[in-house]
């Protein structure tokens, strides 16, 4: 019962007499007349329980306490108070953005919508309409809708986003990169593959400009491009792109693992932020997609398989799922033993040993099996 | 109903009017050349080419920011603003990546070699270094004909940029590969000859460097090896050049006999080639050897020969130098009047070159020697206390001039 309450929040009916006259309350999500009220913050209203639920799961749980001070009307408006208010709103925007982003990474498009909406409304409140600062919110909304297959809405949102960027040529490479990625995804969803490639190419260009050639961000762009090439039937191009992405991520994960072991010497349990976790889900999905793609090829590249499986094993080891780490590690070991000139075998074995040392009981048996 | 249908189909007609700009054309107009070229490469799936160009542009930028203001590095416009160069890199790197995907390693090297050759101008030498290296040092295809050619280009570049040791190593590797491959260069001559020539040039440079550092044994070995390679390279010009350096080295070691032998072979080669500058240089060097052996007459004869060559081919600066040299020798021989004649010739030649140091040198020599001549002529009159001698001196003072010494100057 307790847990149910935790996931759903508490509401009560609005008491009209508790509020000043003439100020009607509107639903947080759909802006229709509201009848319910969140009992925690008492400043958020809903038309029905469904919307309240959606908002609670989407974002409200995280920002409920923040909204209290923000939405409580204050009479005295002095300079310091206003600045405080602005700072709080900026914080709210950041939280909403991160939450929406993580939900999107995890593929929970429906749940991402409330956070994205909240992000947009607060941004408009702070920066005004038609400003560059609204762009991240537009893109979040666009992506959520893309996941939900509302392509007409996406087209409209991206059109607006494009217009904002055109009006503000000074907006940096980061914004351009995000816009191009969303546009690319949209065109890929519509089936306009050439246009999708064009936008993804721009995405990679701006990513490289901003984060460097071998950044994780750029390699995500490469991954998306490769998907389009697969759809166009240009398999060799796609494979070479996948191989590049796999190398980048493998390197990244190795450095993460190295970093992690260094930390764990000092601290027993490492904290994992919410954002990191969603990143992991997204990464896992892409790595598995590439692994499946390679395994389906007529002539399999064992090096690529070993690289990807090793990456996945490291990812799950970092994520704490030892069973999966073991599974992928075994795949990696098998693949790396097939190639004559490869230095992967040793790090894979080291990882497997590390996994087994953390896994009492079953570990030693599998280790025996590995050796034979 | 039918009308509605036709309207419907009209509305669904895709727009394909040639007057409407394509996405590509818009990008060409709106984006900077760097972005346009990079995006084009990526869009075509050539991500390796993109990475390479991108890092080249980065390092170009870095070098420019590190360069001191006003330095030569900043004279040329940044690479990212030179659309034609970017386009050329895009074309060939894309072709190379395509070939690489197909496993055609020689074609990969071919494209890279082309790029190296394209950036032949001095201000782009970093790019040509990059492309030649990326061609010659490939794991796959690194022993192909284009890779060998790239290696020889590298040897040349290293030699021109003052690293004869590296140049020699590249040339040696190139020679080995060329001998194994037995290829022809673009002019249809064996690649091996080119490698020999390159090796000869870098060896003779190295030999010179060792000689300057007083490591005479190494220098001698290198120069000998160099002239052997020059001979194998079947290029008379290089052969003469290397042999001449060998001669100079022998000369400074005091082995004048061997030096003269080398110089006389050079003389043959240079007259065959009708290389006047080299001939004059060679005459001078030979004369120097003869002079130090005490064979002054022959040295004088050779210098005369050199002066004649200069006169007939209009080498004013060289003529002045040779004449001054001749004058010096006559001075030492105690023939100041003869010396004066040569100094005057040298002075005249120097006047027409506009080389002020040379001119001043000639002036001083001429003045000093003239004074010596006059002292010899009039010292009798000066010492004698008779009125006739004073009168003679006074009348000479009234009319004196260069024509006293050179009657043919008086008009």
UniProtKB/TrEMBL annotation, chain A:
PROSITE patterns recorded: ZF_MYND_1, ZF_MYND_2
Keywords tagged on the record: Metal-binding, Zinc, Zinc-finger
Annotated MYND-type domain residues: 27-64
Keyword Membrane: no
InterPro entries referenced in this protein's UniProt entry, alphabetically: TPR-like_helical_dom_sf, Zinc_finger_MYND_domain, Znf_MYND
Keyword Zinc-finger recorded: yes
GO terms of molecular function: zinc ion binding
Name of the protein in question: Zinc finger MYND-type containing 12
UniProt source species: Fundulus heteroclitus
Phylogenetic classification of the source organism: Eukaryota, Metazoa, Chordata, Craniata, Vertebrata
UniProtKB/TrEMBL annotation, chain B:
Primary location: cytoplasm
Domain of life (superkingdom): Eukaryota
Span of the signal peptide: none
Protein location: Cytoplasm
Keywords for this protein: Cytoplasm, Repeat, TPR repeat
InterPro entries linked: Bac_ResReg_Asp_Phosphatase, TPR-like_helical_dom_sf, TPR_rpt
GO biological process: cilium movement
One CC-aspect GO term: sperm flagellum
Protein's job: Axonemal protein which is implicated in axonemal and/or peri-axonemal structure assembly and regulates flagellum assembly and beating and therefore sperm motility.
Name assigned to this protein: Tetratricopeptide repeat protein 29
Organism: Fundulus heteroclitus (Killifish)
């Amino acid at each position: 019962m307790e847990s149910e309450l935790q996931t759903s929040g508490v509401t009560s009916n609005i008491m009209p007499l508790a509020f000043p006259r003439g100020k009607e309350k509107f639903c947080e999500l759909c802006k229709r007349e509201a009848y319910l009220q969140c009992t925690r913050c008492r400043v958020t209203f809903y038309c029905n329980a469904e919307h309240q639920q959606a908002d609670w799961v989407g974002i409200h749980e995280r920002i409920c306490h923040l909204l209290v001070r923000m939405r409580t009307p204050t009479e005295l408006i002095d300079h310091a108070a206003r600045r405080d208010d602005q700072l709080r709103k900026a914080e709210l925007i950041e939280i909403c953005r991160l939450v929406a982003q993580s939900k999107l990474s995890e593929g929970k498009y429906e749940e991402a919508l409330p956070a994205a909406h909240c992000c947009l409304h607060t941004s408009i409140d702070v920066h005004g309409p038609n400003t560059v600062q609204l762009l991240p919110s537009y893109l979040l909304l666009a992506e959520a809708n893309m996941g939900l297959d509302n392509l007409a809405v996406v087209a409209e949102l991206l059109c607006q986003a494009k217009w904002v960027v055109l009006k503000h040529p000074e907006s940096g490479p980061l914004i351009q990169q995000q816009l191009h990625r969303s546009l690319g995804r949209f065109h890929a969803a519509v089936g306009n593959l050439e246009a999708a490639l064009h936008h993804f190419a721009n995405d990679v260009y701006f990513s490289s400009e901003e984060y460097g050639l071998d950044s994780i961000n750029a390699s995500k762009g490469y991954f998306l491009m490769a998907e389009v090439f697969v759809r166009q039937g240009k398999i060799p191009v796609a494979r070479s792109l996948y191989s590049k992405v796999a190398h980048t991520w493998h390197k990244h994960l190795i450095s993460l693992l190295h970093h992690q072991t260094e930390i764990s010497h000092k601290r027993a349990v490492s904290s994992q932020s919410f954002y990191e976790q969603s990143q992991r889900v997204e990464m896992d999905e892409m790595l598995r997609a590439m692994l499946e793609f390679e395994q389906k090829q007529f002539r399999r590249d064992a090096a690529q398989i070993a690289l990807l499986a090793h990456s996945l094993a490291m990812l799950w080891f970092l994520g704490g799922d030892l069973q999966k780490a073991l599974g992928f590690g075994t795949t990696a070991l098998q693949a790396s033993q097939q190639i004559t000139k490869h230095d992967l075998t040793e790090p894979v074995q080291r990882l497997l040993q590390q996994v087994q040392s953390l896994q009492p009981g079953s570990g030693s048996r599998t280790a025996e099996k590995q050796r034979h | 109903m039918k009308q509605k249908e036709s309207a419907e189909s009209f509305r669904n007609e895709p727009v394909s009017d040639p007057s409407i700009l394509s996405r590509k054309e818009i990008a060409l107009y709106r984006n900077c050349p760097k972005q346009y070229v990079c995006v084009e490469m990526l869009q075509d799936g050539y991500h390796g080419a993109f990475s390479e160009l991108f890092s080249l542009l980065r390092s170009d930028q870095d070098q420019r920011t590190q360069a001191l203001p006003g330095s030569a590095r900043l004279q040329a416009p940044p690479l990212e603003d030179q659309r034609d160069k970017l386009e050329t890199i895009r074309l060939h790197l894309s072709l190379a990546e395509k070939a690489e995907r197909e496993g055609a390693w020689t074609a990969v090297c071919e494209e890279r070699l082309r790029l190296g050759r394209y950036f032949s101008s001095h201000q782009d030498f970093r790019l040509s270094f990059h492309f030649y290296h990326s061609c010659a040092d490939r794991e796959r295809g690194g022993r192909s004909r284009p890779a060998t050619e790239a290696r020889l280009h590298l040897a040349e570049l290293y030699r021109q940029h003052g690293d004869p040791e590296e140049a020699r190593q590249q040339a040696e590797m190139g020679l080995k590969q060329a001998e194994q491959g037995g290829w022809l260069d673009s002019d249809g001559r064996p690649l091996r000859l080119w490698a020999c020539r390159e090796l000869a040039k870098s060896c003779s440079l190295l030999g010179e460097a060792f000689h300057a550092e007083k490591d005479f044994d190494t220098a001698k070995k290198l120069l000998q090896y160099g002239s052997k390679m020059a001979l194998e390279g079947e290029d008379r010009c290089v052969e003469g050049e290397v042999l001449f350096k060998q001669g100079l080295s022998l000369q400074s070691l005091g082995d004048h006999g061997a030096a003269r032998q080398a110089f006389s072979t050079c003389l043959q080669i240079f007259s065959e080639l009708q290389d006047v500058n080299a001939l004059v240089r060679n005459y001078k060097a030979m004369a120097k050897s003869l002079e130090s052996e005490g064979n002054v007459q022959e040295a004088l004869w050779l210098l005369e020969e050199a002066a004649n060559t200069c006169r007939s081919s209009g080498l004013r600066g060289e003529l002045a130098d040779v004449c001054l040299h001749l004058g010096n020798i006559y001075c030492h021989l105690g023939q100041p009047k003869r010396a004066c004649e040569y100094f005057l010739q040298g002075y005249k030649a120097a006047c027409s070159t506009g080389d002020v140091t040379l001119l001043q040198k000639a002036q001083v020599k001429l003045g000093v020697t003239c004074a010596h001549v006059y002292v010899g002529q009039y010292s009798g009159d000066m010492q004698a206390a008779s009125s006739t001698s004073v009168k003679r001196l006074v009348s000479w003072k009234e009319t004196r001039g260069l024509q006293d010494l050179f009657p043919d100057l008086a008009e």
